[in-house]
Write a structure and sequence with these properties.
single chain; 269 residues; alpha+beta; Jelly Rolls; Arc Repressor Mutant, subunit A; 10-stranded mixed beta sheet; 10 helices; 39% helix; 26% strand; globular
Length: 269
């Protein structure tokens, strides 16, 4: 299927029809998007919650410190994009895409960056209900409840941060890109560090300073980003585990369940 690219800017009339405001702080836009659809990098003055009723998408968003983080958004998860944050979206699997445009005034306290939340059954139903022609009073009530559900949703550490391409250390960037290209490679941090011409100690320090995480935690996120689309496509758990660098299905299952709250077999189903 040929790549479908969505322009960075939409026609003014299209934007205005979904633009949130103080009077209507929560607006829902529903679209059926084929796989390989791309939304080029852009930003909004309002917050955005990207969610799929079916399918799977990848969201690359700018972080507050200037780096970039990539999220793989499966069912029952959604990514919160803060006002003004530049982001791009790539549809990995045919998706029923639901976007909540939320007025900046309704942003929960402290939510200045991007994050992944767990979509509760109630929030899922609220999104569906708001995607309809509603009386103003009912839209206001459902919108308030949706905002409250978002503010109290569980936050999930599900994202692969990347160092700043210009200001960051090029050795760390090269190492991250190499790991992402070869998730099955069972190299140690010392092995990867040697490949980019640095010591293990130096790379470990760069992970903490530039990405705010350890290499082990970062690699787990990279593995999940690799594994989630494969599981969503129905790939056998044994195949996903092997292609993720795990010697056994059980070891992969332990990691996946700790990170996602359910075993890969259940997620795949």
């Amino acid at each position: 299927m040929p790549r479908s690219t969505v322009p960075e800017t939409m026609p003014v009339s299209d934007i205005d029809s979904f633009r949130p405001s103080l009077d209507r702080p929560v607006r829902v836009r529903a679209r059926a998007l084929p796989a390989d659809t791309h939304f080029e990098p852009h930003s909004h003055a309002w917050s955005q919650l990207a969610y799929c009723a079916s399918g799977i998408v990848q969201v690359a968003a700018q972080q507050e410190h200037g780096g970039e983080i990539t999220y793989i958004i499966p069912l029952s998860r959604a990514v919160w994009i803060a006002p003004g944050a530049q982001h791009a979206i790539h549809v990995l699997e045919d998706a029923q895409f639901r976007t909540l445009y939320i007025d900046a005034s309704a942003t929960p306290p402290g939510w200045s960056g991007c994050r992944v939340i767990v979509v509760s059954p109630l929030l899922r139903e609220l999104v569906q209900a708001l995607d309809a022609q509603l009386a103003p009073a009912r839209e206001e009530l459902l919108g308030e409840l949706a905002l409250d559900e978002i503010a109290h949703a569980d936050i999930q550490a599900l994202g692969v941060p990347l160092p700043r391409s210009q200001a960051g250390d090029k050795r760390l960037r090269a190492l991250c890109e190499a790991v992402l290209k070869a998730p099955a490679h069972r190299a140690t941090l010392a092995d990867w560090a040697a490949e980019v011409g640095a010591s293990e100690r130096t790379i470990a320090r760069l992970f903490r300073e530039e990405l705010g995480t350890s290499y082990q935690q970062w690699r787990q996120q990279a593995i999940l980003a690799h594994a989630l689309p494969m599981l969503a496509r129905g790939a056998p758990v044994s195949h996903v585990a092997a292609s993720s660098g795990y010697a056994s299905d059980s070891a992969f299952t332990v990691m996946f369940k700790a990170a996602m709250g359910q075993p890969p077999s259940q997620f795949r189903a």
